[in-house]
Amino acid sequence: MSNSIELTQESYVDSIIERVVVRNPGETEFHQAVREVLESIKPVVELYPEFEENGILERLTEPERQIIFRVPWVDDQGNVHVNRGYRIEFNSALGPYKGGLRFHPTVYPGIMKFLAFEQTFKNALTGRPIGGAKGGSDFDPKGKSDSEVMRFCQSFMTELYRHIGAQTDIPAGDIGVGNREIGYLFGQYKRITNRFEAGTLTGKGVDWGGSLARTEATGYGLVYFVDEMLKDIGETFEGKKVIVSGSGNVAIYTVQKVIELGGKVIALSDSDGMVYDPEGIDLNSVIEIKEKRRGRIVEYLKTHPSAEYNDNSKNIWKIECDIAFPCATQNEIDMEEAKTLVNNGVLVVAEGANMPCTPEAIECFQKNNVLFAPAKAANAGGVATSALEMTQNSMWESWSFEEVDKKLREVMKNIYSSIKTTAEEYKKDGDLVFGANVTAFLKVARAMMDQGIV
Ligand code: GLU
What we know:
This protein is α/β, with parallel strands linked by helices. The chain is 50% helix and 15% strand.
């Protein structure tokens, strides 16, 4: 009897994974993200047959709305270009759609859907009333002038504005979308609608509705999360050798907080290559190169000639370290890099980027007792602080840096303790992947049950 029940339930999850693959051909990142969540929630789905009866998984894996649009723009030489814009409004069971915009040439529906799907669960973990979405474009901001980026953002918003709003869908930044882009997007939104609706976008400038500490939030939150994990094993960041991949917004503020807590960051990267500075990375130089000049990480050598550069960014994982923070992009750590990290004695791997570790890499870490923090929990500080920005906007208030930072720390602490407790409840102590997926799934699924078949 119990065997047959188990078989039926297993086949529900498996049939949904199969269905997602068939209905979304070629979208491998989306398949990967769905498989990762669904496989780990299997035992919970088995416990509650009402989820199957109400088609929860069919609905949870189908975006509520997918918007794809043309984005024409003119470059500085007068040439016309056409990019593709996206907004995937995945799930609104917990609140209005919320999630960033990514401008990167690799953007296509598979990446947009994986990010929007992940965002639904991540947002659930923050404890704030926000649903999940993601958007962006295959536009490549690299090498574009400010005025080209402005014209692109204006064209993008000329279509997007009709789909978003403080109670509907609230975009923010992601790869390729930072303060500059949010500014241009907000300006165009305001111009078209004739409304200064601060709550429509987050990541705004602090003088016009943005929240202090939003820029730092993803990186700081990531480090706060790992600090909680370390505390649990009687450790701290003090004296730890740390590697952070990437050198964008998440990486920079991860480095800053690690240094503040006494860790030593010895390597950073961008898509061209990596720098290794055994003396400890000089963050001010990195900020000067990456944030102020929008340059390449190789330029670090000009001011730090004793540092080493390698033009394969994946080689960053060959350096021996105690803590690894993949903060660049999806699937940057595969089995090979995972094995090297394990052989070099890594203690903690925490995902700053979205889905930077492949399923095989995660399995390798977990089998070898490496403490592993999944993105949807560990990098949730960014979107959680976006939700704090929305709260401030709706109250017409702005809180101090310290106040927002304190709330961020609280959110990260709560996420850690709730997912750890869930893992323990199901006798999967220490499995934060399971804990995060199950905690988030139950929250979203129960809200969907309450709201009927919609
Ligand atoms: N793009 C970020 C993320 O992956 C932030 C999204 C937001 O603030 O809405 O969570």
